Known about the structure:
Layout: H1 2-18, E1 50-53, E2 62-66, E3 69-73, E4 78-83, E5 89-94, E6 99-104, E7 110-114, E8 118-122, E9 128-132, E10 134-135, E11 138-139, E12 143-148, E13 154-158, H2 171-181, E14 186-192, E15 197-205, E16 208-213, E17 219-224, E18 229-234, E19 243-247, E20 252-259, E21 264-272, H3 275-279, H4 284-290, E22 305-311, E23 316-322, E24 330-335, E25 339-344, E26 349-354
Antiparallel strand pairs: 1-26, 2-3, 3-4, 4-5, 6-7, 7-8, 8-9, 10-11, 12-13, 13-14, 14-15, 16-17, 17-18, 18-19, 20-21, 21-22, 22-23, 24-25, 25-26
Amino acid sequence: MLKKILVIMIALVAYLLLWPVPVEPVSWSAPVDKGFVGDFEKNTKLDAIEIINLPDTHGPEGLAFLDDEVYAATREGWIVRYDQQTGEQVKWVNTGGSPLGIVFDADNNLLIADAYKGLLKVSPAGDISVLTRSVNGTDIDYADDLDVTADGKIYFSDASTKFGAQSNGGTYAASLLDTMEHGGHGRLLVYDPADESTKLVMDGLNFANGVAVDADSQFVLVNETGSYRIHKYWLQGDKAGQSEVLIDNLPGFPDNVVRGRDGRFWVGLVSPRSKPLDDLSMSPLVRKIFQRFPPFMRPQAVPYSHVFAMTGDGEVLTSLQDPEGEHHTNTGALETEDWLYISSLHADNLARISWLNVGLEGIK
């Protein structure tokens, strides 16, 4: 019996140390997690949300607004139109992939960052075309979020050049791999419809995620999910072509960033930070061992509702939370005249909250 136990133990140790896994974790120094303090002090402002059921679809990751209708990109590939006056929902088009970030251009074409298909355009008539699928001879395998400038250039993120969404079990599974490795595989790209070119803007990002251009097209923001921070890349002025960290050491993993009104931006924190990931940031071998554990034992997103608004200078204007996570894994928020719509990575519904219910009139 003792011999059998010894053999099992040796086999287990060998598995934990030697079994091949897709990640090669990189050592880095995670900033100390201050938790929900200061601008991000815990509150229950999102208790006042209204839930909008999404029959047969889930995970409304990205949102856009046109002609009094909210458009939501869902996990099933559908772009769902929601009439905020009548409540009617229509499954408009299906990309056949995994649409994430969406935004309308000046001609009312819906632009889509599709994690499986690349950068797409949907005409008002519903015709889908691929704008770009590669850059500098490399495939774009995880288009994530996007925004468009006044002159029509489309800035979008390629979350990971190593862990493509479709080839690694889907968007969420691929994001967990990239975050565990922390290898700087993300990049910010730009597509110019004028000459149909795709160019690299920034690289070396740890899971490049949300993208938003300011109203005057002076700069573009890009979320770096794996490093808990947001970058600001200047498009015009004396700093054109330069980037800086706009806000750092966030209390959660930033997902989308969405341009709001009056110069503000909305950011979704899809989950609070993971203590094991932070504690083991400088221990790549142990993180690799973690990857050999069963999935339920590895770091995962946990239910917690959280979106916040900030200025283009990184000043936090308001933080809306629900620690119970009724509408969980929030990816971002979209403003309309009377509502703030909140998107989600995993929820089977959409949420919205009235400005009046959370006392936002002062910043509207």
